[in-house]
Amino acid sequence: MNIQPLLDALGIQEDAARALADDLRTQIAALQARLREAETHLEHLAITRKTVTALGERLPAHPVSSDLPEHPDYPRILAVFNEGAGPLRARDVCEALDHELLPKNIEGTRAKLERLVKLDVLTEIDTGSFTRKQ
Fold first, then answer.
1. How far is CA 47 from CA 38, 40, 56, in A?
2. Burial status of residue 94 (CB atoms within 10 A of its CB: 0-12, 13-18, 19 or more)
3. What is the pLDDT along the chain (134 residues), one digit of tens a residue?
4. Cα Rg of the chain, angstroms
5. Cα separation of 65 and 73, whole Å?
6. Residue of 119, 124, 121 lying closest to 134 (CA atoms)
7. How far is CA 127 from CA 51, 87, 88, 114, in A?
8. What is the DSSP letter of 119?
9. Is the Cβ–Cβ distance between 92 and 110 less than 8 Å?
10. Disulfide: which of 6, 79, 87, 119 matches 131 by Cβ 3.0-4.6 Å?
């Protein structure tokens, strides 16, 4: 029996399998390089998200106007309006600022709120009811 044709056929299949394996190794190497690039990009995005989130927590929800009076209550009042969902009265703002609910404190806060209306930062939607200017 002559096995040469069989050995020749096996040789052809071995060459084809070797070529396929080499091609797959090349594809795997290319995919591994792309995977490394994608993982590096993901790491950079995660770092960027962490940085932006940390910076965002430090920024006020609405920029504070540089035209505000220099009293320390004004930025605090704006922070109350930035956190609030709806209109607020002077009494509500006093409570949020932890001021005693005395008439002088409520009237002082009302005067500050009216000043912010004049500065076009707040709007008085009803008498004594204030909201952030949109």
1. 14, 11, 14
2. buried
3. 899 999 999 999 999 999 999 999 999 999 999 999 999 999 999 999 888 888 877 765 555 555 778 888 888 998 898 887 789 999 999 998 999 999 999 999 999 999 999 988 899 998 889 998 77
4. 35
5. 14
6. 121
7. 43, 11, 11, 11
8. T
9. no
10. 87
